[in-house]
Write a structure and sequence with these properties.
Layout (H helix, E strand, L loop, with lengths): L15 H11 L22 H16 L4 H31 L6 H22 L2 H6 L1 H15 L5 E4 L2 E6 L5 E2 L1 H22 L6 H5 L2 H14 L3 H17 L4 H20 L2 H7 L14 H11 L26 H33 L4 H26 L16 H19 L2 H20 L6
Antiparallel strand pairs: 1-2, 2-3
C-alpha cells in the first residue's frame, strides 16, 4: 500500500546521502528574488509608512472616481454646515435676543423656519431636470430686478446700519432681494452663455459680453443704490467666473479688473465708513473712536478658544463686546466655543462642498451644467472668503454672511436652492442616476423584507 506506515522506505544508493549533503554545503547562496514590479514601474512590495500611504491614496482615488462621490459631498457637507449653523446661531444670538427683550430662541426659530423653507425648495430642485432650471432663468432675473427696485420705495425698503437692502413684508418678516439676485444671475448667465456656445458665438466679443455684462451692471447698480457693496463684489466675482469658464481671453480680464479697481476706489473714497474698514486691516487694538472694535474683538474671541474651545454657550465676547455675533462674526464665536478643531472642521466641510461642486462641473460636457455649477462654486467660495477674511482682519468687513452658517433667512433659502441645483446637475449624469435608482431599489426591497415585530 502506498500510504501504509508498514511499507518499506525507499532505499538510496550507498554514498548518495553524503554527496547530497556536500553539494548543499558547497552550493552558492541563491540571489534574492527581485522585487515584483507593479504598474508604472513602482515596487509592488512596499513596507512601513509608505505602504500605508500608498494604500490610502489608492482607496482615495477609487472613492473619488465613484459616480456618487460629488453628489454625496455636496449633500452631506451642506447638511452638516446648515445643522451646525443652527446650533451656533442659537448659541451666539441668545444673549442679544435677551438684551433686546426677545425670547432666547427668537433668532433660532426664524433661522429654523428659513431652513425648512430652503429644504422645501432644495428637495424638489434636486429632482427637477436641468432643463426646468434653465426655463426659470429669465423669470428669476426679472423677479430679482423687480424686488431690488421695490427696495428703493420708501414705504417698502427697510434701512439697517445705513444700508437699504431689505424689503419689508409686514411684521417681523423681511426679505433681502440681493441674495436671490445672485441665484438669478448665476442661472441666467449660465443659460445665456450655454446657448451662445452651442451656436459657436462666443468667439466674438459682442456675443461674449452682451447682454451678460449689461445685465450684471443693472443688478450691481440696484445693489449699490442700497449700499450693498459686499454683495456687489460677489456678483462681480461670479461674472468673472462665468467669463473664465466660457473661455474669455486674458486681456479681457486685465481690462475688466482695471476698470473694477478704479470704480471700487471711487466708491470707497466717497464713503467714510468704507475708508475706516480698510484702516482696520491687520489691526491689533480698537484704534481711535473704537473704529476697529469689531475686528479686534473677533480676534480676541478666536484667540481665547484654544484647541478645543470653551464649550457651546460658554463664549464671552458675545456678551456685548462683539457686535453682530450671529451674522458677520459667527465664525469668531465658533472659534471661541469650539476651538481650533471646530473651526478647522467647518473649513473642511466647506472644502468638501467646493470639491464636490467642482467634481460635478468637470464630469459633464453639458455647457449649462459646467457654467452653472462653476458659477455657484465661485459665488460660495468668494462669499466664504470675504466673510472669513473680515473676521481674521485680512480683508475689510463687507457685511456678507457665511454661506449656510450665518443667521439670515434670505441667504439660507437662496443657498439651499443652489445646493438643490448642484444635486440636480449631478443627477443629470447617467451613471449617477443609475446608481441612485439602484440604491433606492435596494432600500425599498430591504424595507419590504424587514420581518414584523414579535409580539
Amino acid at each position: 500500500m502506498r500510504n501504509s506506515p508498514s511499507a518499506p522506505a525507499e532505499k538510496r544508493a550507498p554514498g548518495t546521502q553524503g554527496a547530497t549533503a556536500r553539494r548543499r554545503r558547497q552550493a552558492p547562496s541563491r540571489a534574492p528574488e527581485p522585487a515584483r514590479r507593479s504598474r508604472g514601474g513602482r515596487s509592488g512590495w512596499l513596507s512601513g509608512p509608505s505602504a500605508v500611504a500608498h494604500r490610502a491614496l489608492a482607496r482615495l482615488r477609487r472613492a473619488w472616481d465613484r459616480p456618487l462621490t460629488g453628489y454625496y459631498l455636496v449633500a452631506g457637507s451642506a447638511a452638516l454646515i446648515a445643522g451646525l449653523g443652527l446650533v451656533m446661531v442659537f448659541s451666539s444670538s441668545q444673549i442679544q435676543a435677551l438684551r433686546s427683550g426677545l425670547p432666547a430662541t427668537y433668532y433660532l426659530r426664524r433661522q429654523l423656519l428659513a431652513a425648512v423653507i430652503g429644504a422645501a425648495l432644495a428637495l424638489p430642485a434636486a429632482r427637477m431636470p436641468v432643463k426646468a432650471h434653465r426655463w426659470l432663468a429669465y423669470p428669476l432675473l426679472a423677479g430679482s430686478v423687480l424686488l431690488l427696485a421695490l427696495v428703493q420705495v420708501p414705504s417698502l425698503g427697510r434701512t439697517v446700519n445705513g444700508n437699504t437692502n431689505w424689503l419689508d413684508l409686514g411684521g417681523p418678516f423681511v426679505l433681502q432681494p440681493s441674495e436671490f439676485a445672485k441665484v438669478a444671475f448665476v442661472v441666467w448667465g449660465a443659460d445665456l452663455l450655454a446657448r451662445k456656445q452651442q451656436h459657436k458665438l462666443l468667439g466674438q466679443w459682442k456675443h461674449l459680453l452682451v447682454p451678460l455684462v449689461p445685465g450684471a451692471l443693472l443688478l450691481l447698480g440696484l445693489m449699490m443704490l442700497g449700499g450693498d457693496m459686499g454683495t456687489a463684489v460677489i456678483v462681480c466675482a461670479v461674472l468673472f467666473g462665468l467669463l473664465w469658464l466660457a473661455g474669455a481671453p486674458l486681456r479681457l480680464f486685465g481690462a475688466a479688473l482695471t476698470g473694477a479697481a478704479l470704480l471700487a476706489t471711487v466708491l470707497i473714497l466717497t464713503a467714510p465708513h468704507r475708508v475706516s474698514r480698510f484702516a482696520c486691516l491687520g489691526a491689533s487694538d480698537p484704534g481711535p473712536n473704537d473704529q476697529c472694535w469689531q475686528v479686534v474683538h473677533g480676534l480676541y474671541a478666536l484667540s481665547t478658544g484654544g484647541l478645543f474651545g470653551n464649550g457651546i454657550g460658554a463664549g464671552v465676547e458675545k456678551w456685548g463686546q462683539l457686535p453682530e455675533p450671529h451674522t458677520d462674526f459667527i465664525f469668531a464665536v465658533t472659534g471661541e466655543e469650539l476651538g481650533l478643531l471646530g473651526t478647522l472642521s467647518l473649513l473642511a466641510l466647506f472644502a468638501a462642498l467646493f470639491a464636490g461642486g467642482l467634481r460635478i462641473a468637470t464630469r459633464r460636457n453639458d455647457p449649462f451644467v459646467r457654467l452653472a455649477t462653476g458659477g455657484i462654486v465661485t459665488w460660495l467660495a468668494a462669499q466664504a472668503f470675504i466673510n472669513l477674511g473680515g473676521v481674521l482682519g485680512l480683508v475689510p468687513v463687507a457685511g456678507v454672511p457665511l454661506p449656510l452658517f450665518s443667521y439670515g433667512g434670505s441667504s439660507l433659502i437662496a443657498t439651499l436652492y443652489t445646493v438643490g441645483l448642484l444635486l440636480a446637475a449631478a443627477r443629470s449624469e447617467p451613471a449617477v442616476r443609475t446608481a441612485l435608482d439602484a440604491r433606492e431599489r435596494r432600500l425599498r426591497s430591504a424595507l419590504l423584507r424587514r420581518p414584523g415585530r414579535r409580539r
